[in-house]
Amino acid sequence: MNSSTEEDYLKAIYMLSAQHSSGVSTSAIAERMETKASSVTDMLKKLSEKGFINYVKYQGVTLQQKGSDVAIKVIRKHRLWEVFLCTKLNFTWDEIHEVAEQLEHITSVKLVDSLDQFLGYPKVDPHGDPIPDKNGNFHKIKEVALRDLKVGEKAVLIGVREDSREFLKYLESIKLLLGSKMEVLNKFEFDESVLIKVNGGNEIMLSSLVCKNLSVTYDKNKK
Amino acid sequence: MNSSTEEDYLKAIYMLSAQHSSGVSTSAIAERMETKASSVTDMLKKLSEKGFINYVKYQGVTLQQKGSDVAIKVIRKHRLWEVFLCTKLNFTWDEIHEVAEQLEHITSVKLVDSLDQFLGYPKVDPHGDPIPDKNGNFHKIKEVALRDLKVGEKAVLIGVREDSREFLKYLESIKLLLGSKMEVLNKFEFDESVLIKVNGGNEIMLSSLVCKNLSVTYDKNKK
DNA sequence: ATACATATTTAGGCTTGTCTAAAAATATAT
DNA sequence: ATATATTTTTAGACAAGCCTAAATATGTAT
After folding, report:
1. Is A113 exposed, middle or buried (0-12, 13-18, 19+ CB in 10 A)?
2. Which of A84, A94, A171, B104 supports an S-S bond with A176, CB 3.0-4.6 Å?
3. Which helix or strand (DSSP H or E) is residue B197 part of?
4. Tens digits of per-residue pLDDT, A136-163?
5. Distance CA B49, CA B64 (A)
6. What is the largest CA-CA distance in chain B?
7. pTM for this one?
8. What is the complex's ipTM, to 2 decimals?
């Protein structure tokens, strides 16, 4: 019934939706799933027929409630198992993902909830990503405007306060996406612009206006 | 590569081999796997080509070393997970099997060995069945001759000391198989015969000679 | 607006593991 | 020893997921 392949697709679509806000493209899914676009098309038809997604040919994909529920449950399981592997079995950061990728497909509601309890109802996984509770609700994380960060602080982009078409276009052009990690390298008082490093890579200067409109949360990620 | 279906077949064959000593029949496997005999035949051909089993048409099946290794690893995982579910997540007896049936197919050597350590290297699972160690060796269990049991004691048949063709035939005819559970109901001194109840069902009178040749181990199973 | 490039879908095939129905081998009973 | 019953295998099909190659849409640049 609930094939783990379908779950993987729904999870991928969920993850990608969070970043692109419009429909998710076939090729984006293909890249993430490490498969061919034609295979994705096949699967999208199936998921659409089963009521998991909204799919219109050539138009990309959005999740239906039902699909989102499945994705969130899988993410919950994945992240709880990661906590288990790290805190109970002493796995290191780089070892947990691969195994959790398998464990996330075990189907037993009782197992997940018992594990959650056993682990002490953790709110975030070892990467700092939030773990949805048994009702699928994510723990609210502290939201801060980028301009309020101090030099040297690290954060993750979690939202935009002004979402005009142009602004989003702009963000996309400079590769600032939801989930992007950033570090404040310098703040210039005279015009309130900020220099940041994105995802440990290139450095970008952001204007006062932009900084005001970016919501971030502190990145507790130790890595 | 290592499809979980193949693992399930090898495990089934392993379990059935332990009881029948001769080759395992297609229909026995089909029954255990809850599938059709024709499907089993297909799979046996594949497993044979891959060197997991010895398969001769119409003659039944035995495991090759390679197949036995796979089966034992799966059994090790299954039983360790059962311990985990019982002792750490407070699952009850009847709930563990189904979930362990899924968990046993997770492929990560490090996971299994870490779990083993985390659980304190248990020697038996919650059903009292032995857990092979990481080298595939089963913990040696205390072997006793049936005639040395006292009235009221319970045991499991683990071997025969005399394995003539007729003796094995006899055991099969009275449904005394390896793994059969028995309880000593009465012992008759005058001819050293023993009355036992088999698998909680029918009662059988065993002669002195038979008792001397049956190896059992005490049944610590609380059920 | 047209031509080119890119993204997406379709068509047809492959593998794994399953099934049913029919054929072949083995086992059993007289 | 022969007929009957049972077990096992073969043949042919199907669904899920994947692939390659070709066709079709969409996007972009002039």
Report:
1. middle
2. A171
3. strand B193-198
4. 999 877 778 888 888 988 888 877 776 6
5. 12
6. 61
7. 0.74
8. 0.75
